[in-house]
Structure formats: structure tokens, C-alpha cells
Amino acid sequence: MTNLEMAGAAALILRLAMGVMFLAHGWLKIRVFTPAGTVQYFKSLGLPGFFAYLTIAGEIGGGTLLVLGIETRWVALLLVPLIAGTIVFVHGKNGWPFTNKDGGWEFPAFWIVGLVVLALLGDGTAALGPVLHRP
């Protein structure tokens, strides 16, 4: 039996955790690796350089929307391909455990599960989305 009051709080906690993680990853690409460095890294993976900017925008924009609780379900689903791309292009070849050299695909896979669960749960409590959509 699901406790609906607690489900809203659970969605809030998961939404905030996911949002902060995306913001941290985007900020890392801006402040530490720099956008130019991130472009070069993406090119070294055989990806077009502009994917770096799309990824940074997705992480910062998506993280912000998750923290605020705006269109949570859609944002969570739209971020799944971004994380799946890290498995396909970066971590998949490194094996399962994230403790492997250069990180395996364990953590990104768990991140995808969290995003899918968040999409199923929705905004949760303390979300701006429902407030913005009131007539």
C-alpha cells in the first residue's frame, strides 16, 4: 500500500537530488573543464563539438527545472537519453562497476532508473509547476 503523503515527499527528495546532480555536472563542465575543453572532449569521443553545448544546456536547464519542480515528468524523461549517451560513448566500455578505471556504467544506469522513477512519481510536494499552470 502506498502512503500518498509520503510519496509526495519522496518525489520532492528525488527531484531535488537529481536536479542538484545535474546542476553540479553542468557547472563542472563550465567552471572546471570549460566549455572549450568540453567541446574538445566530445570531439575526442567522435561526437560533434556542439553536443557539448547541448549537454551543458541540458544539465543546467534540466537541473534547474527539476529543482524548481517545473514539468518534472517531461524533464526527467528528456534527460534519460543524455545519461544513456554517457553509457554508450564513455562508460559502457569500462565495464559495470563505477570504481573501474574511468568509471563503469553502474552509476549512469542507476541515474537512469532514478529519472524513470521520478517521471512516474511526478512533481511531488513544493513544486512550482502546478502553481504556474493554475488558470
Q: How many H/I helices?
A: 6
Beta-strand share of residues: under 5%
The structural class is mainly alpha
Q: Which runs of at least 5 residues are low in confidence (pLDDT < 50)?
A: none
Shape: globular
Q: Name the average pLDDT.
A: 95
List the helices and strands in order: HHHHHH
In total, the number of strands is 0
Rg value = 16 Å
Biggest sheet record: none
Distance between the termini: 33 Å
Proportion of helical residues? over 70%
Structural summary, described in words:
This protein is mainly alpha-helical and 135 residues long. It contains six helices and no strands. α1 packs antiparallel against α3, α1 packs across α5 and α2 crosses α3. It is globular and about 45 Å long.
